[in-house]
Amino acid sequence: GYMSRAAGLGAYMRYHGPVQACRIALLLRRLQDEGSWKPGQEMRVLDVGAGPCVGFWAMALNGMGIGESWAMDRAWPALQAGAQVLETLGRPPVRLIRADIHESTRRWRPGQPADLIILSAVLNELGDATRALERRLRVLRMLLDLLDRQGALLIVEPGTRVASQALGRLRDLVLETGLASVVSPCPRVGKCPMAK
Are 155 and 23 in contact (CB under 8 A)? Predict the structure, then answer.
């Protein structure tokens, strides 16, 4: 993919990465404000599909501390570039894991449950949104198995109509199956209007 090629990775690092880090930082702040964790708490974080560790850039923007943490992506050059950014920011190192979301977690499972899992712009890469709902649900089940019981899974998807509809459908399915509670979108309504 483009994250393994110098030109694509360079473009991402200069524009899309900082923009995505700001989006994630805003959502992390909201989770913190809603009590998902205490200010100053050092969390074990797993960034899945991390690319250049943009979820950790977001945590740096918010001044959030991390404990033992992991960044997983199939694009090794992106992970290495992200590690360099984190070092420049004076952030603690994270364990880089070269793996694919489709692989068994036995190969890349962290040694202990994560307090926070960041899944940014991954679900939209799992195929046609109208036909890949079960695949998305399998990924969520897999990730929830890696999460501490009091932890949070933050899903950030592109702000397109198709991605929003797919996320709304996934949210509805998560609630229907009792898989997890949902903070957003649409936490206080039955069916999410975005799913239409």
Answer: no
